[in-house]
Design goal:
Shape: globular
Helix content: 25-40%
Structural class: alpha/beta
Distance between the termini: 24 Å
Largest sheet: 7 strands, mixed
Radius of gyration: 23 Å
Number of strands: 16
Number of helices: 15
Strand content: 15-25%
């Protein structure tokens, strides 16, 4: 968990340290002059990861719609926690990554780009009932998202990638029509047939809040590149004695996005690189799409998670870490890239967690996910011989880490990983990754 009381030292470049040490050596020879001590690099920092906040912002989860509490307050509480623990505020958080599905609803039945290309949508009695287009995404959900991220704007580098819910439309493809008429008809072993396949399109809504030309990013020196108006974006940040490149990719990114990302990496050779994208890995640790939101199956211009690995991530040795959401649950895996080096890939998505709704007496035929304030804190210790990444899961609502909550497995394990022991389930959200080849790839701080 972030230790906000700890004072943070700024990242000092090696050149500055060398000059300072030289000055100290020179002045130490002068009689009566005290030597100047070289600054010490702070090797520890944290990345805050915000997965799938859509259920906090869902307009139906607010008191104005008859819900027992304003779930959006939980989102603002989460963003305030991040703001309070930024390095610029004396905390440890050096970078913030939002993994998409910031809000819930769409505004169009179908986007014009897919319609013009000849795609057809069909009615979907189950999905349409949950995600019917509404103007309330513009009057309730998007403004609240803007309010939350305004708490960290101008104080830290951050990234927001579009998830499928953040697109202007999410329509059911005529290629994969649903067979189910209601919840009783759903075959959990064949969701693609039961529920059909929905497909996102259009990013005008997303760009209006998180586009490259918005006040969040325009003119920020750390926001170094964008593609399609901010659908894909790149940021720089300094922490732990290193300069990092971060690349955010849109949902099931097409080749144009991957080619753009490769060009950005080429502009910043040698920098350790992190990639955030919404859809990448299942909670079983497989690089497979969600069967009912399979972007490549509907529109081959979109790359599947495995294609993103094969075309981009495995082919660029600077990429050492991939962050993703979308799939309900948590997992991690490590694979060797084309150069024989490790790439750690980490999933977190807590949108299904709804203990707060249960406690408020919400009755529903469907589980009512909220998120319960859970987020990821990924803390790096770059001072060790082999740098370590400590992954912790923290609820800003319960103000506890997952490891410290006695009810954690009872509440969440049955819906996420029922076959695990309680201890193994806690280990899914609280673990340490040893970045054993980081030094050989990126040098010393």
């Amino acid at each position: 968990m972030c230790r906000s009381a700890l004072a943070r030292q700024p990242v000092i470049s090696s050149a500055l340290i060398s000059l300072t040490a030289l000055a100290a050596a020179c002045t130490s020879a002068a009689p009566g002059v005290q030597p100047v001590e070289a600054p010490v690099i702070d090797h520890a920092f944290t990345i805050a990861v915000l997965p799938d906040t859509q259920n906090y912002l869902d307009y139906t989860h607010q008191t104005a719609e008859g819900f027992p509490f304003d779930a959006s307050e939980m989102f603002l509480e989460q963003m305030q926690f991040v703001a309070d623990n930024l390095e610029s505020e004396g905390g440890e958080i050096a970078f913030v990554s939002s993994l998409g599905d910031v809000w819930q609803h769409q505004t169009l039945d179908m986007d014009e780009e897919h319609r013009a290309r000849g795609f057809e949508r069909v009615a979907n009695p189950i999905m349409d009932a949950h995600f019917a287009p509404t103007d309330k995404v513009k009057t309730v959900e998007m403004p609240k998202a803007h309010e939350g991220f305004s708490l960290i704007a101008g104080k830290t580098p951050f990234s927001v990638v579009p998830g499928n819910h953040d697109y202007d439309s999410m329509w059911t493809s005529a290629k994969f029509p649903p067979q189910s008429k209601g919840p009783a008809d759903i075959d959990p072993n064949d969701l693609k047939t039961s529920l059909g396949v929905v497909h996102p399109g259009g990013l005008d809504n997303f760009r209006s809040v998180f586009g490259a030309e918005t006040a969040f990013f325009k003119g920020q020196p750390w926001y170094v590149a964008s593609h399609e108006g901010g659908a894909d974006s790149a940021q720089l940040f300094e922490a732990g004695g290193y300069r990092f490149l971060h690349i955010g990719l849109q949902f099931d990114p097409p080749d144009a996005s991957l080619e753009w990302a490769a060009s950005v990496i080429a502009q910043y050779p040698g920098l350790p690189t992190i990639v955030s994208t919404h859809d990448y890995m299942t909670r079983e640790g497989e690089r497979l799409p969600n069967p009912i939101v399979d972007g490549h199956a509907v529109d081959p211009i979109n790359n599947s998670p495995e294609m993103v690995w094969e075309k981009l991530i495995s082919q660029h040795d600077q990429i050492f870490l991939v962050l993703c959401g979308h799939e309900h649950g948590q997992a991690w895996r490590v694979d060797d890239n084309a150069f024989g080096h490790s790439v750690w890939q980490v999933l977190a998505d807590y949108q299904d967690r709804g203990q707060t709704a249960k406690d408020a007496g919400v009755q529903s035929a469907w589980p009512v996910g909220i998120g319960d304030g859970w987020m990821r804190l990924m803390s790096f210790d770059m001072g060790k011989d082999a740098p370590e990444l400590t992954v912790e899961t923290y609820s800003t609502y319960y103000r506890k880490q997952s490891r410290d909550m006695a009810e954690y497995a009872d509440w969440y394990k049955p819906g996420e990983k029922p076959d695990l022991s309680d201890e193994a389930f806690r280990d899914e959200d609280d673990y340490v990754l040893v970045l054993d080849d980081f030094r050989s790839r990126f040098g010393s701080p």
